[in-house]
Amino acid sequence: MRLIMIFWLVFIPNLSHSFQFPYEDFEVKRIYKIDDGRTIVVESRPRGNTIWQVNKQSLKLERIADIWNFIDLAQSCERIPENNIYFAHNLEYWFNGGTNIDYQTIRIFSLNNPKPYNDNYLGITPSMNYAKEWCTFYKPYHIKEK
Questions:
Q1: What is the pTM of this model?
Q2: Which residues face 43 on adjacent strands?
Q3: Nearest Cα to 109, choosing from 131, 83, 133, 91?
């Protein structure tokens, strides 16, 4: 039995994350491993989500972008010229205050966009069911339990 445990610890790679969170109460929403070798971590915060990537040398998280509601990460979509794109809601305010939180537009952003907003999205979709017909999505290896 001891020999099996030693073999397991030495030769089988650790499937859990091996990176450092930037602070103690960091709440993981999703973790993805994408085609270019990066590990993408989506943090759940009280007022939105932050998208991070793991620095391979330091194993520390580097902030990519903040978004109000991250939905999912796709490898590619037909008619979208970029790869590694994500679907999200952005909180949009009316000119005299207030916002529409009931029927938000699902926008498509580049994963490399550090300031996703309504003037730099790649496209929109009426629903995620529609997007799943045209896109190839990454499967996260961690999803926060609700």
A1: 0.83
A2: 28, 50
A3: 83
